[in-house]
Amino acid sequence: MKILIADDSRVMRQIVVRTLRQAGFGDHDLVEAADGKEALDMATEQKPDLVISDWNMPHLTGIEVLRQLRAAGNNVKFGFVTSECTPEMKSAAEGAGAAFFIVKPFTAERFDEVFAPILG
């Protein structure tokens, strides 16, 4: 499976990749986007099986990326790994069709809990 990791922080993308590997999902094809526009383009063109997105990114926020994908009929599994967590954000994410919402800091156990049902 192809997993797109979208975060404007290179270090955070590396932490997500490392945590995916620690959780046992390192054998998937992991690709990275450095901002929301790149994430939207890559999700559209490369058709990943899963998108793990930050909420706040330049050009397009994570929720804007999700909404644009859904508006275009793209039903890729999409969720958030973010440092912010308000009830409004969770509600907006669920309303837009997000599959998960993980709050930083996170652990390999949390990734396993969330991604095992998605990635098998």
Automatic annotation (TrEMBL):
<dbReference type="InterPro" id="IPR011006">
    <property type="entry name" value="CheY-like_superfamily"/>
</dbReference>
<dbReference type="InterPro" id="IPR001789">
    <property type="entry name" value="Sig_transdc_resp-reg_receiver"/>
</dbReference>
<feature type="domain" description="Response regulatory">
    <location>
        <begin position="2"/>
        <end position="119"/>
    </location>
</feature>
<dbReference type="Pfam" id="PF00072">
    <property type="entry name" value="Response_reg"/>
</dbReference>
<feature type="modified residue" description="4-aspartylphosphate">
    <location>
        <position position="54"/>
    </location>
</feature>
<dbReference type="InterPro" id="IPR052048">
    <property type="entry name" value="ST_Response_Regulator"/>
</dbReference>
<keyword id="KW-0597">Phosphoprotein</keyword>
<protein>
    <submittedName>
        <fullName>Response regulator</fullName>
    </submittedName>
</protein>
